[in-house]
Amino acid sequence: MQDDMTGPLLGIRVLDATAALSGPVATQILGDMGADVIKVESPDGDTIRGMGPARHDGMGAMFLHTNRSKRSIVLDLKEGAAREAFVRLSGTCDIVVCNTRPKAMARLGLDYASLSKERPGLVYVSIVGYGAGGPDSDKPAYDDLIQAVAGIPLLHAPGEPPRYAPIAVADRVTGICAANAALGAMVHKLRTGQGQHVEVPMFETIAALVLADHMAGLTFEPALGPPIFQRYVSIRRPFPTADGSICLMVLTDKQWRTFFNTAGQPEVMDDERFKTVASRTRHLEALYGIVASLLKQRPTDEWIALLQEADIPVAKLETVQSLMSHAHLIKTGFFQALQHPSEGAIRTVAKTSNWSLTPTGPTRPTPRLGEHTREILAECGYSPQQADELIAAGAAREAP
């Protein structure tokens, strides 16, 4: 954890009313930037607390990797006293992030319209499944469902069965976009004093991600051809070598000439089909067929040495296990080994960006359920006796 709090969001307070992945990803980004993130959980806790290996109940691996740099308070929002505490807490915050369906928050009186009456400068970010105004705006959304409606499972090689991306890409990309939206709204607030409600819909976010690559000919009116960028769906994959696989990216005219010179087949670039980017794009299957036949003739390590020497972009095919000891990640401090107060020795991803003045990174260990309930209630003006009463009534809960 950072010894000296220097992040760019130092002094910004965030109320994290999210669960699962999209919202927690967003708020962890803000927490790693130095914001004081207060995670409001139900008495049962975030749904992902139980996912993955764990030393203790409620502290699973996925939760540990998505909820550091936060404090946890338990409020049972079905109880009026807990809702009052939520309102008081929101009055101390600059940003509220929520991924509960808007109508549910409105019924509780915890939506933007309700909270902003007392705090007009509040930034309220709602992560929803589908944007307001459409016929699907009230539908629930989960990563698998959003991948499906955005067409991702069918973006595999023709003839292969549909399958989801093997990471929660819809949740995590939406979370990153929500953090970006919160930061943009905060800049506006700091300039003008005005808060606002920002909606970040998962479907639209992931549909944009897919269509930016694959709208292709449908970009134009009238269409200049069908959708789908064929290199991505039918050709883009590691190439087999004599003893394994290799990953390379050859794009420019110079790179293609260098590649075929290195492979001992310079005459390939004399073919009219391969002389320009436009013509190569039209004949990708033929081009990549030649590449594949050449790469099968030598072992992986020999190709990597040859192509690196020729300055051709190339990479080894790594596994999750090999990433844990990847020389570059180790040297740059990507991982951080730390002693968690309750979970013991753990390893976490420490940073994904480098800052010259206000470095970011984990600021707090991932909290146990309700670990900071009393502390946060006190910051909202609750006396120890009032906190006792909330807990005794079941409106709040603290960690053992």
Question: Can you describe this structure?
Answer:
The chain is of the alpha/beta class and 400 residues long. The chain has 2 domains: 13-210 and 354-397, Rossmann fold (3-Layer(aba) Sandwich), CATH 3.40.50.10540; 239-316, formyl-coa transferase, domain 3. The protein is 38% helix and 14% strand. The protein has helices at 22-32, 61-64, 80-90, 102-108, 112-115, 143-149, 169-192, 202-214, 230-235, 253-262, 277-282, 284-295, 300-309, 320-323, 327-331, 373-379, 384-392; strands at residues 13-17, 36-41, 70-75, 95-98, 123-128, 196-201, 239-240, 245-248, 314-315, 335-340, 344-349, 396-397. The protein has a 7-stranded mixed sheet, sandwiched between helices. A 3-stranded antiparallel sheet has the order 7-8-9, with helices on one face. Strands 10-11 form a two-stranded antiparallel sheet. It is elongated and about 85 Å long. The mean pLDDT is 95.
